[in-house]
Amino acid sequence: MDGRLVVGLRPVREAVRRHGAALREVLIEDRSTQPLDALARFATDNHVARVLRVPRGELESLARGVSHQGAATLAPELELMTLDALLEDPALVALALDSLTDPQNFGAVVRSAVAFGGAAVVWGEHASAPLTPATFRASAGAIEHARLCRVRSLIEALGSATERGVHVVGLDPDAPGPLASVDLSGPTLLVLGSEGEGIGRATRRACRTLASLGTLSMLESVNVSVAAGIALYEIRNQRAKTPT
């Protein structure tokens, strides 16, 4: 079977919403429940060619340990933006993920980015969580609508962003000042690291500014997706107050 495996009620629903007739088929467990029946109708209404009821064992075999909730599909590959295209956005808001290897956290950050209203997600091709069904599942389908940019070297990407006038801000609990004191009104790229370790030393040097989350700056105890949401909220507040 060719394609990108997506499992879970919400992820499959968002894949149907995003790709519609481009999906060859949607597989739904052969038992009648309100969520499963609603998904079957939604797929049919969105012109999916085949909506098949299949035994749970078939879904278990496809999902390989990822919670499928009775639904699966094979979606087109995700479209990834180039860094150059991303940096052309004069109102850029992006999250750069430094060595975030946990698929659950990666997916949750993507969900926060999409909820913000189109914040992009940038990550290095090495030492990062792979784009797998577990990641798609953790994003609750948000990854279908995300602006994604995978780069060869995150540190080089941060340097390119700075050269193009993007404000590269690293979230660091030990930073001397809070994010609220940083001007985020222009194109901004927020750098987040993994829980416990935060951003790496070389990545920290590539940031133009380091900032904390104030009283909520202990990233060891705050999930990285929560930190992303707080930071994105600060950007939204600042830009809402900036005259157009």
Rg over CA atoms: 19 Å
Largest beta sheet: strand ordering: 7-6-5-9-8-10
Overall structural domain count: 2
| Residue share in helix | 25-40%
Q: What does the main sheet amount to?
A: 6 strands, parallel
Low-confidence stretches are: none
CATH level 1 name of the largest domain: Alpha Beta
Fold-level CATH name of the largest domain: Alpha/beta knot
Mean pLDDT: 91
CATH architect. name of the largest domain: 3-Layer(aba) Sandwich
Structural description of this entry:
The protein has 244 residues and is an alpha/beta fold. It has two domains: 4-75, Ribosomal protein L30/S12 (60s Ribosomal Protein L30, Chain: A, 2-Layer Sandwich); 83-241, SPOUT methyltransferase, trefoil knot domain (Alpha/beta knot, 3-Layer(aba) Sandwich). 37% of the residues lie in helices and 20% in strands. It has nine helices and ten strands. Helix 1 (9-19) packs parallel to helix 2 and helix 5 runs parallel beside helix 9 (224-241). It starts with a strand and ends with a helix. The model has no long low-confidence stretch (mean pLDDT 91).
